[in-house]
Amino acid sequence: MFNREEDRSQPDGISWARAANVGRLSVVAAVVRRLMTRLRRISTILLIAGSVVLLAGPLTPRKGDAAVAGSLDDLVGTKNGGKITGGVFLAGDYHPPEPLKVVKSRNFCGDTVPNETFLVGTNGGVRNAVVTLHPVDKPIRIEAGRVVLDNRACAFVPHVQVATLGSELILKNSDPILHTVHARLGKTTLFNVGLPQWRRVSKMLTKPGAVRIDCDVLHTWMSAAIVVVATPYYFVTGENGFFTFDGIPAGSYDIEVWHERLGIKRARISVSDRAPLSIEMFISTP
Ligand SMILES: [Cu+2]
User: Fold this and answer.
1) Which of the residues 41, 194, 203, 238 has the least number of beta carbons within 10 Å of its own beta carbon?
2) What's the gap in Å between 170 CA and the centre of ligand 1?
3) Which of 217, 219, 255 is closest to 234 using CA atoms?
4) What are phi and psi of 84, to 5 degrees?
């Protein structure tokens, strides 16, 4: 009862396979793992999509289905849109970066601060990857919001976050020492703000893209990113690299993964509001 289309190579170098099965996610996962092992060897970027497809008729639990992962709701998706779960994983070995050396303000900051630029969990999941969905053929409405970038214990907090286009960015400093927030989009400086502890500054994020942040008072170890997106569908992965989307209208989407060290990867997916989609994206170090 297991159907699998053969791998299909995508123009952007991402190859992916689609697995169709009613409910046997564990079987899908086992096949995905085997494929991953095989494909990882060729050091490429992979996207494996396991789609649970309902062919016809109502879904009713059957005898012997105890091993089926997830609840009935998981299998049929939500009434208001499709569900996508998955993860971003490192293809290849992980060598944790060294802590960052503090070269100034050591009395307050200490000798080193944690290096958050490349964090990978014990399961190979990539933390602080930004996953976004972009509808291929339908308009979307985004709502501007408000995000905060703090300076705390000689680091920008959070290290990576997402803001929708047009959002307000609040800059603040919880440390009793001076920091700056130097924001660049590519090579263009968007703003460069001095930030003593008492000061709060508001900026508008009016251009999409990954805004890189540095601190210009010789705090060479400090960095952060704010990914400004023109989509309401975004997720920042946690320590195990997992992501979840719910209520996604059916249709074609480009799924994009951004990571500050691993770059950008894209693939096209098809979202159904009748069946959840499971995606694992494997990214190699550049
Ligand atoms: Cu600083």
Assistant:
1) 41
2) 16
3) 255
4) -130, 125
141-229: CATH class: mainly beta
Asked if residue 103 has pLDDT above 90, the reply is: yes
A 10 A CB-CB count for 11 gives 6
Q: At residue 15, does pLDDT exceed 90?
A: no
| pLDDT tens track for 112-157 | 999 999 999 999 999 999 999 999 998 999 999 999 999 999 999 9
Distance (angstroms) between ligand 1 centre and the Cα of 104 equals: 9
Strands 18-20 and 46-51: parallel
Confidence of residue 190 (pLDDT cuts 50, 70, 90): very high
The span from the CA of 113 to the CA of 154, in Å, is 8
- Residue 56, CA distances (Å) to 3, 189, 274 in order: 16, 55, 11
CA 95 – ligand 1 centroid, Å:
26
| Banded pLDDT at 80 (limits 50, 70, 90) | low
33, two tokens: 């793992």
222 versus 63: the higher-pLDDT residue is: 222
Range(s) within the chain of domains with CATH label 2.60.40.420:
141-229
> For residue 23, which of 251, 249, 271, 276 has the smallest C-alpha distance?
276
Give Cβ neighbours of residue 284 (< 8 Å, ≥ 6 apart).
Answer: 43, 44, 45, 90, 91, 92, 262
Ligand 1 center–CA 161 separation, angstroms: 18
Distance from Cα 59 to the centre of ligand 1, integer Å: 56
DSSP class of 69: -
